[in-house]
Amino acid sequence: MASNQVWARRLREARVAKGLSQRQLGIDAGLDPSVASTRINRYEMGVHRADYPITQKVAQVLDIPVAYLYADSDALAQIILIFERANDEQKAYLLKMAHALNRPTP
Asked: What is the reported pLDDT for 8?
């Protein structure tokens, strides 16, 4: 799937999970109310991709890390979400496990 389509799908999934309309997401992200719905719709349809500053605002409203939208695979996107939502102790544990998995086996 093209990267723009993945980005668009993840945006829509995150918006729906948050329970926001396209219009409300756009307004909360600082878009002009007269174009908010249309812009978010075009992003979700993969017609356009938001520039990085808008992506940052949208991600903040959706309470997701920006990297989630850009991750190369769905598995990586899920790991990014899990890590972001973990507390400091859990993050330290996850990093320790990731380092252990990365060690070469004898």
From this structure: 95
How confident is the model at residue 61, as a pLDDT?
A: 98
Place of tokens 């409300």: 24
What is the spatial distance between Cα 94 and Cα 100, in angstroms, rounded to a whole number? 10
Nearest CA to 15 out of 52, 53, 51, 55 is that of 55
| Predicted model pTM | 0.85
C-alpha dist (Å) from residue 30 to 24, 40, 99: 10, 12, 39
- The per-residue DSSP string of 26-62 comes to HHHTT--TTTHHHHHHHHHHTS----HHHHHHHHHHH
pLDDT value of residue 4: 85
